[in-house]
Amino acid sequence: MASPKTSAERRLYKRFDTDIPVEIITETEAIHSARGVNISLAGMQLRCDREALRDVAPRGEKTTPDQSPAARLRFNLPSPGEQPLIEVDCRIVLVRRVSEREYHLHIQYEFFQGNGYNQLEDYVDAMLEKSPL
Predict the structure, then answer these.
(1) What is the pTM of this model?
(2) pLDDT at 83
(3) In angstroms, rounded to a whole number, what is the distance separating the alpha carbons of residues 78 and 99?
(4) Distance (Å, whole) CA 123 – CA 12
(5) Which helix or strand (DSSP H or E) is residue 54 part of?
(6) Domains in the chain and their CATH numbers?
(7) Coil, strand or helix: which one is 29?
């Protein structure tokens, strides 16, 4: 019998640790600050405070993929020279409480504005070249 795959083996895209500022824009146009924890071609994990969580994902830790709130992310990729601005519509598919005041939001991308996906792909390709296998 084959052993179950680990989370890392199930992931389609490699994640890269990051610490970039991210704006989360809700459907009501409220803007909240967060920090990127990791990034991939499929999504991002964000760190935010309780105040942002209440507005961005009102169900909090009870957020599930089938009831995922929509939002828009806006962030600059940490690249040497030009730092492309990425805007992407997304879904918050999971919320994890890290501490009393800190939460991690698991984000799944849905639609990139302009050339955002290509810019993200270039960034990830550069990160892959730097990282050991």
Answers:
(1) 0.84
(2) 80
(3) 27
(4) 17
(5) helix 50-56
(6) 13-130 (2.40.10.220)
(7) coil
74 phi/psi in degrees, rounded to 5: -135, 125
Q: What are phi and psi of 119, to 5 degrees?
A: -65, -40
pLDDT band at residue 7 using 50, 70 and 90 as cut-offs: very low
Residue 12: pLDDT over 90: no
DSSP 4: P
Q: Which secondary-structure segment (H or E) carries 64?
A: none
pLDDT (tens digit per residue) in 47-100: 999 999 988 988 887 877 778 888 999 999 987 777 889 999 999 999 999 998
Reported for 66-73, long-range contacts at CB under 8 A and 24+ positions apart, including other chains, are 68/92, 68/93, 68/108, 69/26, 69/27, 70/27, 70/110, 71/24, 71/25, 71/26, 71/27, 71/107, 72/24, 72/25, 73/22, 73/23, 73/24, 73/25, 73/44, 73/46, 73/107
Token pair of 3 as six digits:
């052993």
Read out DSSP for 77-89? ---SS---EEEEE
Residue type at 4 in one-letter notation = P
